[in-house]
Amino acid sequence: MGDRSAAAVGSSIFFLLAPGVVAGLLPWSITRWRVAGTLAWPVRAFGAALLIAGGLLLISAFARFVTEGLGTPAPVAPTERLVIGGLYRYVRNPMYLAVLATIAGQALILGRVALLAYGGVVAVAFVVFVRLYEEPTLQETFGDTYETYRRAVPRWLPRLRPWPPD
């Protein structure tokens, strides 16, 4: 992509289309945002914290693609550079984890087991996509740089300390 303005516009559109649908439209279609059950307020508060944290982390990860990668998370307009800063120093897939956190947060706020089940399906889809498409594509595109990063930073469980890229 190359141009930060174009990357920002592309990332904004993709934000609405991908996480907007997966973590917004589809959960709404399942719940219509109606509260069910009688979960205790601490459970709902934890859900709200997950939802807010997931949203903030997702925005941060998208911004990193624009500023560091000069591209978008969308496969049709990928980054020119491998994104390894910010949250990506702790875990390779913070966007997917953030989306799952927002879905889990919604499930806890609304008391909806169906949303937890939906989150499980989304998690499986993310794992399959990462393993079968994303990782091979990054390896092909960025070669040794990606291999070094892949060996140092876990796919799903964040490191306790940030990876210090050279």
Roughly how many Å is the radius of gyration? 17 Å
First-to-last CA distance? 25 Å
- What best-fitting shape do the alpha-carbon axes yield? globular
Question: How much strand content do the residues show?
Answer: under 5%
* Nearest-integer average pLDDT: 96
Low-pLDDT regions: none
For the largest beta-sheet, the strand count, sense and barrel status come to: none
Number of domains: 1
Brief descriptors of the model:
166 residues, mainly alpha
Textual characterization of the structure:
The longest helix has 40 residues, at 113-152. Helix 2 (19-31) runs parallel beside helix 4 (94-110). The protein is mainly alpha-helical and 166 residues long. 31% of the residues are buried. It has helices at 4-17, 19-31, 41-67, 94-110, 113-152. It has one domain. Helix content is 67%, strand content 0%.
Provide a brief overview of the structure.
The chain is mainly alpha-helical and 166 residues long. Helix content is 67%, strand content 0%. It has helices spanning 4-17, 19-31, 41-67, 94-110, 113-152.
Helix-strand layout with pairing:
Blueprint: H1 4-17, H2 19-31, H3 41-67, H4 94-110, H5 113-152
Helix pairs in contact: 1-2, 1-3, 2-4, 2-5, 3-4, 4-5
